[in-house]
Design goal:
Layout (H helix, E strand, L loop, with lengths): L8 H10 L5 E5 L2 E5 L2 H4 L3 H14 L13 H17 L8 H10 L14 H9 L2 H9 L5 H9 L26 H20 L15 H18 L18 H4 E3 L7 H16 L8 H5 L6 H17 L1 H12 L3 E2 L9 E3 L9 H18 L4 H4 L8 H22 L3 H7 L19 H14 L1 H10 L11
Parallel strand pairs: 3-5
Antiparallel strand pairs: 1-2, 4-5
Helix pairs in contact: 3-4, 4-5, 8-20, 9-12, 9-15, 10-16, 10-18, 12-14, 12-15, 14-15, 16-18, 18-20, 20-21
């Protein structure tokens, strides 16, 4: 029989000290952040008031207003935040310290996240929202050497037909000959129809066999997990966008809807076909692409309008193709970007029948991650889509790069328990997941991966979240 130890004051104080935020160094490659939270712990209430008055004065407010801040937790939160910025101020040349203090005073949270010894939420929020992370990353991540920049820029568009005309993002559309409309129709539409056929047959099943659907609550669990993993694994980049979705109430699951049971509009159908038309049109597996042969230039708005109208006429004139387009719409994930909230995310709930359900579930998980990444890309980067000859490199290829980062982390760090939760509702044999090594969207994924390899992970993710497009070989002009 063992005698239970009677706790002493020293035991209790050891627990208190253990759970207090302590001085530490946060490793956020390529950055390191020093946290001196211990400097705040020993301050008296009067000393806290004096420091708060100084903070208010620097922030451009009447120091007397500091006395109105009576909430103990908020008083400490503000001191911790300012102390964190002050300790790391000199590490980032050009950081607007006064502007950061002004933001903190004007935006104190209703439910503040406090420093904790084994978490970094407080530091990420303070450093992210005050632009310290963004400024630090831009100062830390070196600009691209000219040779690398040119190599990356070439991935966004083919060289000009006239070698004396400059190429690359933002170059004149005069590089491309006039669009051969008849050739585009003749060559593109059959390739696009084959693409639709190959997609639709993945859900074929014997007559009379009822389809099986994934449960909405199971997909909800995956969506929330994907958001948590993205926030944890894409640091410090995800927190470097001070007005990004992670800081403005982003709830991925609230955006998703069941696409399999959604009837599309004509506009919906054509938009989805446009997406796949670029995959078919840029395919070079059999030689020169259809877009190259027809002189299609995505930088010319007239060419884009013509393609959109052509696809609309195609499904209007051919009922069988229209039925294929509807089925395709209902059986492929998508993300719209209407308004400022990132739009909605449509997920496919029906299980594919050409593979085990567990494999189909892993593919659904990857889709969930992919569609979430559409909501994370910086608007400045997304705005370059119409300024390059291969728009899908940014629109989908870049999304695939981030999908690979998050999805592979989920596989590499998964446990038996987490896998069991992810496979809820799945019947039949359990197929182990396969790491994502090849990016989707054919040529666009290949070029996006080339850019990632050329510029490196730090530059790529910094550009993805902060919109500093020069880091990935794009020109602001």
């Amino acid at each position: 029989m063992t005698t239970q130890k009677i706790p002493t004051m020293e035991d209790a104080l050891a627990v208190v000290q253990r759970d207090q935020p302590v001085d530490r160094t946060l490793d956020l490659p390529p950055l390191q952040v020093n946290a001196k939270h211990g400097d705040v712990l020993g301050l008296s209430d009067q000393e806290v008031t004096v420091r708060l008055a100084s903070i208010y004065r620097i922030a451009g407010h009447d120091p007397a207003l500091a006395q109105r801040l009576t909430d103990t937790q908020l008083r400490l939160w503000l001191l911790y935040a300012v102390n964190l910025l002050a300790v790391n101020r000199e590490a980032v040349p050009g950081f607007d310290f006064k502007g950061a203090l002004t933001w903190l005073v004007n935006n104190m949270p209703a439910e503040p996240v406090m420093p904790a010894p084994n978490r970094r939420e407080f530091e990420l929020q303070v450093l992210g929202r005050t632009r310290w992370l963004r400024t630090a990353l831009k100062a830390k991540v070196a600009r691209l050497p000219d040779q690398v920049r040119q190599q990356a820029a070439a991935c966004y568009g083919p060289p000009p037909s006239n070698p004396n005309v400059p190429s690359g993002p933002g170059a004149s559309s005069e590089q491309t000959p006039p669009l051969d409309k008849d050739l585009l129709r003749k060559e593109l539409l059959p390739k696009l129809q084959n693409l639709l056929l190959n997609h639709v047959v993945q859900w074929s099943r014997p007559s009379g066999r009822e389809p099986r659907f994934q449960q909405w609550e199971d997909l909800g669990l995956i969506a929330r997990l994907a958001q948590t993993v993205a926030w944890q694994t894409l640091q410090p980049y995800a927190a470097a966008r001070e007005d990004g979705p992670f800081f403005t109430g982003f709830d991925y699951f609230s955006k998703i809807y069941d696409k399999t049971r959604t009837l599309p509009t004509e506009q919906d159908l054509v938009k989805h076909l446009m997406n796949r038309a670029y995959v078919a049109g840029e395919d070079t597996s059999a030689g020169k692409s259809v877009f190259t042969l027809a002189g299609y230039d995505s930088m010319r708005s007239d060419d884009r309008v013509f393609l959109f109208k052509t696809l609309g006429q195609w499904i209007a004139e051919q009922p069988s193709v229209r039925r294929l387009a509807i089925y395709f719409f209902q059986h492929i994930g998508s993300s719209t970007h209407a308004g400022t909230d990132g739009g909605g995310v449509g997920l496919v709930t029906e299980f594919r029948t050409d593979r085990p359900e567990s494999q189909a579930r892993w593919e659904t998980i990857e889709t969930i991650v992919h569609e979430m990444a559409h909501n994370l890309i910086h608007p400045n980067l997304l705005a370059q889509v119409d300024k390059v000859r291969r728009p899908m490199v940014i629109k989908e290829g870049f999304i695939e790069v981030v999908t690979r980062e998050v999805f592979n982390w989920m596989i590499d760090n998964g446990s038996e328990a987490s896998t069991k939760r992810l496979m809820m509702g799945v019947e039949g044999q359990l197929v182990p997941p396969v790491r994502k090594t090849t990016l989707g969207y054919a040529e666009s994924g290949v070029y996006a991966d080339q850019i990632f390899q050329l510029v490196g992970r730090e530059r790529f993710l910094t550009a993805f979240f902060t919109g500093d497009i020069e880091l990935v070989g794009l020109s602001p002009s």
